[in-house]
């Protein structure tokens, strides 16, 4: 007899626990009811839960989760406002990348992409004045990205003529 009471109590506890774990805290929604039934909807669930005459219940919906993540960086971009000159533009063979006098021997690199976003060329910028040999590129438009410690600090549109 004790085991039946114990088992019944455990079953009741697990049922209550299960119902409790299935609850939602919603940020908004609407509900309407009349003598014929009720309908309710909530933000996050779509489209509604409907019950008519208390006899039938039709539940429809799915939760639409959205994840927003932000990546914070500990890397300090020391030369964030550095002046960079890119010339000539349009170019035929070479592009000069010249840093202002505030240039410090930090780790700078460049990447050149086509307009479809494919990486074409990448390399390092080690001097105040750098010359990029781009004579092998086809005629067209490209994106030149300047990075410091792997973080983009400037982006330029360059044109090969």
UniProtKB/TrEMBL annotation:
<protein>
    <submittedName>
        <fullName>Por secretion system C-terminal sorting domain-containing protein</fullName>
    </submittedName>
</protein>
<dbReference type="InterPro" id="IPR026444">
    <property type="entry name" value="Secre_tail"/>
</dbReference>
<feature type="domain" description="Secretion system C-terminal sorting">
    <location>
        <begin position="86"/>
        <end position="154"/>
    </location>
</feature>
<dbReference type="Pfam" id="PF18962">
    <property type="entry name" value="Por_Secre_tail"/>
</dbReference>
<keyword id="KW-0732">Signal</keyword>
